[in-house]
Amino acid sequence: MRKLIYVKILSTILMIATSKNQVMAQSKTETLIEKQDNPSIFYKTIEIKGQVIFYREAGRLDKPVILFLHGFPSSSRMWQPLLEKLAMDYHVIAPDYIGFGHSSQPGPESFTYTFDNLAEYIGKFITQLSLEKFILVQQDYGGPIGMRIAEKYPEKVQAIIIQNAVSHKEGLSPLWETRKAFWADKEKYYEAVKKNFISLEATRQRHIGSTPAPERINPDTYIDEYLFLNKPGMADIQLNLFYDYQSNVKSYPKWQEWLKKHQPEMLVIWGKYDPSFTVAGAWKYKDDVPKAEVHIVDGGHFALDEAEPEILRLMQQFLKRVTIER
User: Fold this and answer.
1) Domains in the chain, ordered, with CATH?
2) Does the pTM of the predicted model rise above 0.70?
3) Which residues form the AB hydrolase-1 domain (predicted)?
């Protein structure tokens, strides 16, 4: 009995010490960020409901916040070039979702992989970092996660920047017809879709698309993603989440109503060589937000692969025009 009590006391002491160390480390990092004249990227983690969320952060804390939400099957790493270049003028933050990048990757038997659940964790991430106002940058999966955040925290969203993220059925290419078959009969198509999802050719095609200059795409991007998708258990994690993608399509009408009601400052940048999301999906945002800026660039689904300088310029011009309140 005494041994059990001793173990419990020791465990409590260790928990308090660990928590104190985390707070001290966070405070030290914030001090470093605040003193930066030439900002560096910090690579950090935070624990939420027993799961670890990894995130990249740079820029002074008194600058306007930009929250970057990545797509599939990438991570916050996709935003690294923009984080480095925008950190002089903004406080930039880019998390990895649960199941992605360097964040926790529990198996689907112990974690519910839905967009509602991933958005809930990002919402708690926002709360824990005390982000009062921010500009949302959304790519691919970042779109449905970002729109859930916008619905829950409309008062926090100062502007929205979209890069190949769909909120209208018109944005879904014919490729989605076979994907809808998987939604209709998960068991029948699971293995076939799984095989395609983790194949090198499918991973490469997400980046190459229909670009006339595939030699401009750094193969490291899709090879790294291919290796990530072929980690033990990862295919099942991603297939469970992709099965839930149908919930996003069903939510398109309410997201369109949200946009019509709130009329956010909005920039839409679209890579025209995207095999999954059509250019029509970019222009449909103007039906909801007539003042939205829409720019079609020479790039694919991951337009930063080919059009990073242009995208950076468009974002900087847009951000300067947007009225920001800290």
Assistant:
1) 36-321 (3.40.50.1820)
2) yes
3) 64-306
